[in-house]
Design goal:
Layout lengths: L2 H13 L2 H8 L3 H15 L4 E4 L2 E4 L1 H24 L8 E8 L3 H15 L3 E8 L1 H10 L4 E5 L7 E15 L11 E2 H5 L3 E4 L4 H10 L8 E5 L2 H9 L5 E4 L4 H6 L3 E6 L4 E9 L6 H20 L5 E3 L9
Parallel strand pairs: 3-4, 3-5, 7-11, 8-9
Antiparallel strand pairs: 1-2, 5-12, 6-10, 6-11, 6-12, 6-13
Helix pairs in contact: 1-2, 1-3, 1-4, 2-3, 5-11
Protein name: LysR substrate-binding domain-containing protein
Keywords: Activator, DNA-binding, Transcription, Transcription regulation
InterPro entries: LysR_HTH_N, LysR_subst-bd, WH-like_DNA-bd_sf, WH_DNA-bd_sf
């Protein structure tokens, strides 16, 4: 099994066509076809189904694609780390970001890493906390923001901040940031909520167990964007961390207010895999991310957030 064969496999799978893959790889089409055929012969199984919609990976190919992508990523990292400029930290670092913090963190993090460590290539992935934790456990990402998590057998966790949850409605709901809303009032409205198993949903369910109201849930989703779209369309209210909705509230697209009685916060943490020593580029990005989050909290750019009182140095 050769690297060029794995590269051909991934490229065909991504574009769905041998012809397009050949153009991207600057090869003739028969050369790409031959690489795929050699892989199939070595493994003893077909890797693609040829359909009118293009080349569709078989279940066997999906397994190989996942492993091949990881192997090629590791080789890219090794090349970057073995060719550093004197005194420069180089490499590829994959970072997981919670969907709710993308607007306030993705661009500043990219800018900060580019300024402080221009030899590092940053790869950003977003999702809800449970999915990011899975990617961290399997090594698909190097570090990630997560919430409401302590150290696990596979992960080391550093607390960063605590943030308040808001109830969110359409503009005519007339919710105001300076006027907290009791959970009982929020739960009396039709609700659009995250799906069960989502970390934010667990916080909502905890508050529901205290408030004496049986809510009417009209929709559940794993997408924060969809939560906000359904609220704007008039299907109900929702619950989100302030960071995920403050810009919409400020622009008048939605209205929102802190939730109270009971007060429910989520803890945002930085998670990395347990290792005896963090490699230099991962440690550099972890330190930059930790510093940046602190700056955003202190300046008020991360709304309704307070620094966690239990900070620890990355990797320790």
């Amino acid at each position: 099994m050769e690297l060029r064969q794995l590269t051909a496999l991934l490229t065909v799978a991504e574009v769905g066509s041998v012809t397009r893959a050949a153009k991207l790889l600057h090869l003739v089409q028969p050369a790409v076809t031959r690489q795929i055929r050699l892989l199939e012969e070595e493994l003893g199984t077909p890797l693609f189904e040829r359909t009118r919609h293009g080349m569709v990976p078989t279940p066997a190919a999906e397994v190989l694609i996942m492993r091949a992508r990881r192997a090629l990523d590791e080789l890219d990292r090794a090349r970057a780390e073995l060719r550093p400029e004197p005194g420069e930290v180089t490499g590829i670092v994959s970072v997981g970001l919670l969907e709710s913090v993308l607007e306030i963190l993705a661009e500043p993090l990219t800018d900060a890493v580019a300024r402080r460590h221009p030899g590092i290539e940053l790869r950003l992935f977003s999702g809800y906390s449970g999915l990011l934790q899975q990617w961290l456990d399997t090594g698909e990402i190097d570090l990630s923001l997560l919430y409401n998590l302590s150290d696990t057998p596979s992960l080391w966790v550093a607390p960063l901040l605590r943030e308040q949850l808001w109830v969110v409605g359409p503009p005519d709901a007339d919710l105001h940031v300076g006027s907290p809303v009791p959970w009982a009032t929020a739960l009396a409205h039709p609700l659009v909520l995250p799906v069960s198993g989502h970390g934010l949903r667990a916080l909502v369910d905890r508050a529901r167990s205290v408030a004496p109201v049986q809510p009417r849930i009209v929709a559940q989703t794993n997408s924060m964007l969809l939560q906000k779209q359904l609220v704007l369309a008039g299907h109900g209210w929702t619950v989100l961390p302030a960071a995920g909705v403050a810009a919409d509230v400020a622009a008048g697209r939605l209205s929102g207010a802190p939730l109270t009685a009971p007060d429910v916060e989520r803890s945002v943490v930085l998670g990395v895999q347990h290792r005896s020593r963090l490699i230099a580029p991962v440690e550099a990005v972890a330190s930059t991310l930790t510093r940046l989050v602190g700056e955003l909290v202190r300046s008020g750019a991360w709304p309704a957030a307070t620094a966690d009182a239990r900070p620890r140095a990355a990797g320790g």
